[in-house]
Amino acid sequence: MHNSLLLTTVVLLFAVSMTSLAQSQPGRNPRPYQGLDWASAHQVLTTTHIHVSNQKKLDIFLKRGFEFFTLSNYYPSAPYYPMSAMRAGQFRVRQEHAVVKNGVLTPGPFEWNDILAPWIDQVDEEYRKSYPFKVGGPMFTDLPPGLMEAPNAEHHSFTNTRAHINAPGSLYASGTFDARNRFLSAKHGYNFGTGLPWQTAFANMLEQLLIPDGGGITINHPHWSGLTDENIAEMLDFDPRVLGIEVFNQSCGRVGKAWSEEHWDRVLATGRQCFGFFVPDHATTEGVNVLLVKEKTAADCLRAYRLGNWYGAIKGSGLRFQKIACDGKVLTVECDRDANIQIISKLGVVAEKQASALTFPITEPAQHVYLRAKATAVDDSGEILFSQPFMMTP
After folding, report:
1. Distance between CA atoms of residues 31 and 227, nearest Å
2. pTM of the entire structure?
């Protein structure tokens, strides 16, 4: 069987099985925060897209008050989980997860020193001098006791989309360390990314979720990736555990593509629930998800993502939401200080007030399709908060 036909067959088989599985899963929560006791909930700072591979960078986020970590590294796209077990260079020596080799998904392990040996003399001396690879010391040398964490990775190089995808809460791993083909692994048939259709990879990610009722899939930086609204909708429709898109990505701001807020509103206007994520990516100062949890546990944090019990922030300091509630008749927003509060729907900005609270009567829900709150600090902090959307249509 030709490799392309084999991959197509795999996609079809996964599609059948995943359709059945998706039908057994609750849809993305159309009314987040229901039943949430805001007064007693812990507000946990975190994010879903964060590249950290050493203690120095981890310390930056710890000092900012981050309490839950789902590191999303790549090359390979393997969870750095648990962080206490991670060693420098370990994936260059050996990886356990499968890799697409010559178009076929091939199970591990892969002993890279042995694999590279036949052609290592062809590798540029600049890179060859690091061979043979060795496992170094711990990546993280000062982890706080009880630090909350869950698996995650950034997956890329699908055969049928330019998307980059994260899977907070999933143990799924893909690709190799040789991102730039400096060790000629691609020349010898090894795909440095997933090498699979996104549908197959999504199924694998969901199959390996740490807990069944928490975490899921995020669609990274759709503006930077050049994804169309149709691309996003197709991924959201694949499974209700495809949670949403990155609305803000600080790293993408370097090329003027930090924001995907317009993508968010257009997708929501179709009647699809789509949670919004706010991330630093490779950067360190902006992009925060604030989880609302009863208990400070990794499992509760992952469940908050699934339920939509969280809100987005640019800075994660200063201005906070104290309550967001919607019973279908009234949307109530409360902040801990005065802010410029907006209510946004398919119709645009439908209410705006500078105050610490805003109450919006919902008289014609079908026209709005969705409602979300946005609060901008009126001081010089630069903070902006974003609620998760409330869907007004069945």
Report:
1. 26
2. 0.94
